[in-house]
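Run: sequence + 6-O-phosphono-beta-D-fructofuranose -> complex structure.
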Amino acid sequence: MRVGVLTGGGDCPGLNAVLRAVTRKGIEIYGHEVVGFRSGWQGLVDDLVMPLGLDAVEDILARGGTILGSSRTNPYTVDGGVDRVRRTIAAREIDALIAIGGEDTLGVAERLTSEGVPVVGVPKTIDNDLDATDYTFGFDTAVHIATEAIDRLRTTAESHHRALVVEVMGRHAGWIALHSGLAGGANVILGPEKRFSVPQVCEWVRRRFERQYAPIIVVAEGAIPEGGEEVLQTGERDAFGHVRLGGIGQWLAEELAECTGKESRAVVLGHTQRGGTPTAYDRVLATRFGMHAIDAVSEGDFGEMVALRGTDIVRVPLAEATAKLKTVPLERYAEAEFLFG
Ligand code: F6P
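>> structure
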């Protein structure tokens, strides 16, 4: 078979580990040819290829980013996009595609599958917000990076008696905030799933100062104050209709300075959470996903996504995987709340 593979959406630690596993097992076990498409779905729209032989994937297991490049291109919003995807598939004699991505990339995979294009999906995202899998690779690395940042910021917070607000990514899911906040011993954790009360946060912050310690507040970029709105960097929408979130940390730091009278600073971790080498956990998960995805392709089991259930890798229909976002259940915040303040 000639198997095409692409990485779409935000880059994420572990993408190269999937590419290595797909290529090595595809060539060494199944005797397939593997063709990389550059820059996500744009590579299919514009016929941008990169042959993936064994040499191309040597030494990439621990490398962050993606050797194929990525984009947020949506063929369904590009003029003649889907026809161009079909033309590329025909011209390159591709028998199957492996799409590695989050809700957007896999949403396109699902639509194409239902229109007869043979695709298998692999779930990636630091946000961990895909419903059909227990974990996506990239999440563990992002949580480690955010936790390390919290540990480092704590020393400045304590030395200068400041409140430090740490803004983390996650879009509309608070998984990174919750896990890094718990791991870093944050005094307040705010996610997008539950609107927060500014007076309540002020109270927690004051209590922490009263005990002669400086508070760390972890806030997800999508968190919303009661009676307020999401804070946006720009009002522009990407090809999948997403706005660019960011700025809630600074807004909250100013509110806290006002209500507590204490110096408050905000730090935005931003793309550091997506950068650099994947953790061991993410390398293993990404490698297993890649090996199972090429198995699914070789068995002709299209329209499926590989997923983690417990410790097993299973296959779930792409339609199920992209039907809804996996957000943090409110009980998980309630469970953590006794640690606040
Ligand atoms: O989905 C991953 C993610 O990092 C989100 O957490 C964040 O909101 C978004 O991508 C940022 O995307 P971009 O890098 O395109 O601004």
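>> summary
The two ends are 58 Å apart (CA to CA). The first strand starts at residue 2 and ends at 7.
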